[in-house]
Write a structure and sequence with these properties.
Elements lengths: L2 H15 L5 H20 L10 H13 L4 H20 L26 H8 L7 H16 L3 H4 L7 E2 L4 E5 L5 E5 L2 H19 L18 H14 L8 H14 L4 H8 L4 H4 L1 H17 L4
Antiparallel strand pairs: 1-2, 2-3
Helix pairs in contact: 1-2, 2-4, 3-4, 6-8, 6-10, 10-13
Length: about 300
């Protein structure tokens, strides 16, 4: 194992142990670092101290020529910067040659947002006369009520729901925990599911998870995606709906009704408020459209 590989292993271990990043995020970082080290080897670099800003830029150009878009290249540069920052922290290097390299320009991609009426149709699509329909109604309602990621939704445990205080405790990215309030409607649907849906599905079998299948196993991401597609069609939504669309809608609808950005940031579990600010653009665009449509001089 050469020194470059050893440094990469130390960096990945640092991300896992000290930063507490999720397995998916660590895998993405690992892939980016491997590509960068392969680039250094291809350019005859075996000592990390010999790599300069020019080689970082060349690597990004090579990625562009290979067909990677600006968003993917920006992620690569963030990874490389983090790698060098770690090496400076460990006193392996004195400076970070990637620090002054500009991020590729990435157009701000506005998330898909459902209208309130569309959300209502979607949430009312499950058949509440059947145990599975009761479960699905509770899942959809909680997803929208708390703005959860689908990965967070399927991991919610019985112990994470407090129906008296009306909140859900969520384990988000990087194993960071947050508490999000849920409304009366979501609370009632979860209560009905706990009373008449979940016991039928479990048939006396134990499970720590809130949402379970007929076989008493926890709901999967793929399983929920299929259900969402089915209910979107049933609700008459002709465009593609993803679980994240409900999270986007949650944030946008709150801002449209006067919620402050900081509160929405906390509820979404965003570390950086700049990530949350994208929703203000969505809200502003909708306000412009309403003004144009309804103002007599619009």
């Amino acid at each position: 194992m050469n020194s470059l590989d050893q440094m990469a292993d130390q960096f990945i271990n640092y991300l896992i142990v000290e930063k507490g990043l999720s397995s998916n995020t660590v895998a993405a970082y690992s892939k980016d670092i491997i590509l960068y080290l392969e680039s250094l080897n291809a350019n005859g670099i075996s000592d990390i101290a010999d790599a300069d800003m020019g080689l970082v830029i060349k690597h990004l150009i090579d990625l562009r020529d290979a067909g990677l878009g600006p968003r993917s290249r920006a992620r690569h540069l963030v990874t490389i910067r983090g790698f060098y920052k770690f090496l400076v922290r460990e006193k392996i290097l004195e400076t970070n040659p990637a620090q002054m390299v500009d991020l590729p320009k990435v157009g701000r991609k506005l998330p898909n947002v459902l209208g309130v009426d569309e959300v209502v149709r979607l949430l009312e699509a499950p058949d509440a006369s059947k145990p599975l329909g009761v479960r699905d109604a509770a899942m959809l309602e909680l997803l929208y009520a708390a703005g959860l990621r689908v990965s967070e939704l399927i991991k919610v445990g019985i112990a994470n729901i407090n129906l008296e205080a009306c909140f859900v405790r969520v384990l988000g990215k990087g194993s960071k925990e947050r508490v999000v309030p849920i409304g009366q409607v979501a609370m009632k649907k979860i209560d009905v599911y706990l009373a008449s849906g979940r016991p039928v599905l479990l048939k006396g079998r134990p499970s720590p998870y809130l949402f379970v299948t007929r076989s008493a196993t926890p709901m999967t991401r793929q399983g929920f995606w299929k259900l969402l597609k089915l209910y979107a069609q049933k609700a008459g939504l002709t465009y593609k709906i993803t679980p994240h669309a409900l999270r986007h809608s949650f944030a946008t609808h709150l801002l449209q009704r006067g919620a402050d950005l900081r509160s929405v940031q906390v509820m979404l579990g965003h570390v950086d408020i700049s990530t949350t600010q994208i929703y203000t653009h969505v809200a502003q665009e909708r306000l412009k459209a309403v003004h144009t449509q309804y103002h007599p001089r619009g």
